[in-house]
């Protein structure tokens, strides 16, 4: 039904109908045209295949290194997933505790925001260094990647959880007070559900960040995984190798984010979900 | 003496008051640091304040040159990310077809854990060379007597490090530009219709400005992410900037130096971030930036 | 503008050549697509507003009052029939944009412009598009005069978010007056204000109307407001909206606070209220 004055963009006179079908079609056309451009433009411009691989070149390279790539994915993915899950659990737990006490929250918030503002990634070598000291035989430098995943993903997720738990309006707060609800009851009945949209947004960012942490860990420590494979592509100046690894990781990451998005749209029925995260 | 009678003094007092929590936080941080160092008792595991400071001083020339190098890259990365983010954002927001066509690609690009792309950018510029925009002699040559001008030379360049930093910083401002432009409330569209505003007038007077608060807010993220991107690229691109210094410190097991360099980065990031916020506040109508 | 002048115009109300605003046989149906359910918003509307008249339209929520106004503004097109402003079809190419002003329920003051710049905005756009002539200095002067007229003197350099709701609405009204449109279309302009501010702005509106001789079509759900302000009150039925009554308000002008308590006022108000009782 036409809404009063609705236009899909600007004040344009001719706009394609904003139907689901049109959107999907355009998206597909977009991907296809991009692939076609990517395939034919480098050739047309006479660019070398070595430094400007086309999709076909990338596919060939990927087929060639498929086995090693498959072997390299698990260590990286494991580090990312463990780091991510730990961040999730910790951010919710710590967030819940902090929110229950206004004073502590006010005092600690500047620290948390401060740590989130600085590039935590700069501490990668330090974390790797420290992990090297752990005197347990089966633990090796690979643990650093797990820690990095956790370290990078945790703070934004914590802030998301805190924002979510805090975001109840004045009226609801008053209602809880009138009923004499304890902090735990307030959390159980109101805060947690209220925080879910924020937590899901945090999860989308969090997973990508966990991957970032794991990969950078590998870059620096040179432990085995997708990240170090990508880094080694530099010394061979193999663009096609680097790109194929990018695509593989990209797919994995996008899939996980999509799964989170689907979970969110099932669980949170009172707000529209989006793949990229809601409004601040 | 009453502050109320002198508005400038009153504002100064306000400014100082606002900074107090930060100062307290800073002091608490230093106290914690030294406390932990004492408890652990080994400069090989946790460098004390004193050890950190002296390690830094020993290599102050290098530190200064490298930090300048890094933040020069950060500036280029940030500017590139902002310009492309806003321009492309406006374009995509305006043209429905482009938006739908590029959606999956944008989401994919956004999901890629950016470090895996760093090698791609680095390789490309290794092969094709950097685009140098401007070279200048860094402050190190002026501050330190034993640093020659050519050692302290810096350049604003488009290279693997800066383009990668721009890639990482691009998404927040790009996405929020689109979100902002598309959230223009209906009544403004109606006003535009009644006045017969053209599409360009709608963008110029209404939609772009509606996006400004979103853009201003996301530029903060873009600033932070540009720093992250530059440092990550420096980790894999050999020899570049302060990022490499940290790796070097790790390889030579110089913990004091590592602590020192990391602290320098943190402080530098904080300063850069505040500067960006200040600039944004100055450039936008009041009330745009929180 | 006194109602005496209005009664002197020709009695033949359907001569659209004389009317300022005229709806002839207007229908508005949404959802003409076979797949969608169609909504019959307005049916068979014939309405003429003479130059200088103040006409209110009242009706229950969803009865199509806003649709009616938006059609007069040229934002919507009628499914059947025609809408003319000063004899010219509002959707046709000869329609002169500077003849119409539309005042919204919520302030359209752009938050990023000062009050003065907001008032100048319509002039900027209309001038760029060649809809009006005259130099900017003339309009700047006029802006100052208007700001004084609505009681916003001295606030020219303030930003909208520094002003109260009532003041922001005054800015909105001023915006619609700057290019001297002969017709003002007002969509519940005081609906979001508290009762006292509303009464104040009602008086001010009458004062402005008196000094500028505009033709006003006014939408409101406040029946007393309609009686207080207008020469005529049109009552619209619930969907599908059609005109069920056209009541002449013969209260003397200028109207004051005392008018609200007068016997005739109460009579007229009761007459209109009766329409709505029967729809319960």
Description of the molecule:
The complex is a heterotrimer of chains A (280), B (290) and C (280). Chain A is built from nine helices and no strands. By secondary structure, chain A is an all-alpha fold. The longest helix of chain A has 45 residues, at 55-99. Mean pLDDT of chain A is 83; it is low at 1-14. Chain B is mainly alpha-helical. Chain B contains eleven helices and two strands. Chain B has helices at residues 7-40, 49-58, 60-94, 96-111, 118-128, 139-143, 160-182, 186-195, 199-236, 241-251, 255-283; strands spanning 131-137, 153-158. Chain B has a two-stranded antiparallel sheet. The two termini of chain B are 33 Å apart. By secondary structure, chain C is an alpha/beta fold. Chain C has eight helices and ten strands. Chain C has helices at 3-8, 65-73, 115-128, 136-149, 165-177, 195-212, 223-229, 263-277, and strands at residues 21-30, 39-49, 54-58, 80-85, 88-89, 100-103, 183-187, 215-219, 232-236, 243-248. In chain C, the strands form two sheets. A six-stranded mixed sheet of chain C has the order 6-7-8-3-9-10, sandwiched between helices. Chain C has a four-stranded antiparallel sheet with strand order 2-1-4-5, covered by helices on one side. The radius of gyration of chain C is 19 Å and the shape is globular. The model of chain C is unreliable at 1-16 (pLDDT under 50). The B-C interface holds B 185, 187-188, 190-198, 201, 205-206, 209, 212, 284-288 and C 70, 73-75, 97, 100-102, 104-106, 108, 110-113, 121-122, 124-126, 128-129, 131, 159, 161.
Please tally the helical runs of chain A, counting DSSP H or I stretches of 4 or more residues: 9
Low-pLDDT stretches of chain A are 1-14
Number of strands of chain A: 0
CATH-level-2 architecture of chain C? 3-Layer(aba) Sandwich
Strand order of the largest sheet of chain C: 6-7-8-3-9-10
| Beta strands of chain C, count | 10
* Poorly predicted regions of chain C: 1-16
Instruction: Sketch the major β-sheet of chain C.
Output: 6 strands, mixed
Give a quick precis of the structure.
Chain A has 280 residues and is an all-alpha fold. Chain A is built from 9 helices and no strands.
Name some characteristics of this structure.
heterotrimer; A: 280 residues; mainly alpha; MetI-like fold; 9 helices; 74% helix; 0% strand; flat; B: mainly alpha; 11 helices; globular
């Amino acid at each position: 039904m036409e809404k009063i004055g609705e236009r899909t963009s600007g004040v344009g006179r001719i706009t394609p109908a904003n139907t689901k079908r049109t959107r999907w079609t355009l998206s597909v056309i977009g991907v296809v045209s991009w692939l076609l451009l990517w395939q034919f433009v480098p050739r047309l411009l006479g660019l070398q295949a070595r430094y400007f691989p086309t999709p076909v070149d990338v596919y060939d390279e990927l087929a060639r290194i498929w086995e090693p790539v498959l072997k390299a994915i698990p260590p990286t993915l494991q580090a990312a997933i463990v780091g991510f899950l730990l961040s999730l659990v910790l951010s919710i737990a710590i967030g819940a505790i902090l929110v229950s006490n206004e004073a502590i929250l006010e005092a600690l918030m500047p620290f948390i925001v401060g740590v989130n503002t600085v590039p935590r990634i700069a501490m990668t070598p330090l974390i790797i260094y420290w992990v090297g000291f752990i005197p347990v035989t089966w633990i090796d430098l690979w643990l650093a990647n797990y820690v990095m995943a956790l370290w990078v993903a945790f703070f934004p997720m914590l802030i998301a959880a805190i924002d979510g738990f805090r975001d109840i309006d004045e009226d609801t707060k008053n209602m809880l007070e009138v009923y004499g609800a304890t902090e735990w009851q307030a959390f159980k009945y109101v805060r947690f559900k209220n925080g879910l949209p924020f937590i899901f947004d945090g999860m989308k960012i969090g997973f990508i960040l966990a991957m970032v942490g794991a990969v950078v860990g590998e870059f620096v420590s040179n432990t085995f995984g997708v990240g170090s494979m990508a880094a080694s592509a530099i010394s061979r100046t193999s663009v096609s190798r680097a790109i194929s690894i990018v695509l593989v990781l990209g797919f994995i990451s996008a899939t996980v984010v999509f799964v989170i998005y689907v979970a969110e749209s099932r669980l949170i029925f009172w707000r529209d979900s989006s793949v990229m995260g809601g409004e601040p | 003496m009453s502050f109320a009678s002198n508005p400038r003094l009153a504002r100064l007092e306000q400014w100082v008051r606002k900074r107090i929590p930060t100062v307290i936080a800073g002091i608490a941080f230093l106290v914690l640091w030294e406390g932990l160092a004492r408890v652990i008792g080994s400069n090989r595991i946790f460098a004390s304040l004193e050890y950190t400071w002296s390690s830094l001083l020993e290599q102050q020339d290098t530190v200064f040159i490298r930090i300048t190098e890094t933040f020069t890259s950060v500036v280029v990365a940030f500017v590139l990310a902002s310009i492309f983010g806003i321009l492309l954002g406006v374009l995509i927001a305006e043209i429905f077809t482009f938006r739908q066509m590029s959606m999956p690609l944008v989401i994919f690009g956004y999901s890629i854990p950016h470090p895996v792309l760093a090698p791609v950018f680095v390789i490309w510029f290794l092969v094709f060379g950097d685009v140098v925009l401007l070279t200048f002699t860094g402050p190190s040559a002026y501050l330190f007597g034993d640093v020659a001008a050519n050692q302290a030379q810096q350049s604003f360049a488009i290279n693997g490090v800066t383009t990668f930093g721009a890639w990482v910083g691009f998404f927040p401002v790009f996405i929020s530009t689109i979100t902002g432009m598309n959230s223009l409330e209906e009544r403004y569209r109606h006003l535009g219709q009644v006045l017969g505003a053209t599409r360009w007038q709608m963008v110029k007077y209404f939609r772009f400005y509606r996006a400004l608060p979103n853009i201003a807010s996301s530029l903060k993220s873009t600033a932070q992410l540009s720093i992250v991107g530059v440092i990550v690229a420096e980790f894999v691109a050999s020899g570049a900037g302060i990022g490499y210094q940290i790796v070097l410190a790790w390889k030579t097991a110089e913990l004091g130096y590592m602590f020192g360099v990391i602290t320098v980065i943190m402080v530098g990031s904080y300063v850069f971030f505040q500067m960006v916020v200040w600039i944004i506040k100055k450039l936008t109508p009041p009330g745009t930036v929180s | 503008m006194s109602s005496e002048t209005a009664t002197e115009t020709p009695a033949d109300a359907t001569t659209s050549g004389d009317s300022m605003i005229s709806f002839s046989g207007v229908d508005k149906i949404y959802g003409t697509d076979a797949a969608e359910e169609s909504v019959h918003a307005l049916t068979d509307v014939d309405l003429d507003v003479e130059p200088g008249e103040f006409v209110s339209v009242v009706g229950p929520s969803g009865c199509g009052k806003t649709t009616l106004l938006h059609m007069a503004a040229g934002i919507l097109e009628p499914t059947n029939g025609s809408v003319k402003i000063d004899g010219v079809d509002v959707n046709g190419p000869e329609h002169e944009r500077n003849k119409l002003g539309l005042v919204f329920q919520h302030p359209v003051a752009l938050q990023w412009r000062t009050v003065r710049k907001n008032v100048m905005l319509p002039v900027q756009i209309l001038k760029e598009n060649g809809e009006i002539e005259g130099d900017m200095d003339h309009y700047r002067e006029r802006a100052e005069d208007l700001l004084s007229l609505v009681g916003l003197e001295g606030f020219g350099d303030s930003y909208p978010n520094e002003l109260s709701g009532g003041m922001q609405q005054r800015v909105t009204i001023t915006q619609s007056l700057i290019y001297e449109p002969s017709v003002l279309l007002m969509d519940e302009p005081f609906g979001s204000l508290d009762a006292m501010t509303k009464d104040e702005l009602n008086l001010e509106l009458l004062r402005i109307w008196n000094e500028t001789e505009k033709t006003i079509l006014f939408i409101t759900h406040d029946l007393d407001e309609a009686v207080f302000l207008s020469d005529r009150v049109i009552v619209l039925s619930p969907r599908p909206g059609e005109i069920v009554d056209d009541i002449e308000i013969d209260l003397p002008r200028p109207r004051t606070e005392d008018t609200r308590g007068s016997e005739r006022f109460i009579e007229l108000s009761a007459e209109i209220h009766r329409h709505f009782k029967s729809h319960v």
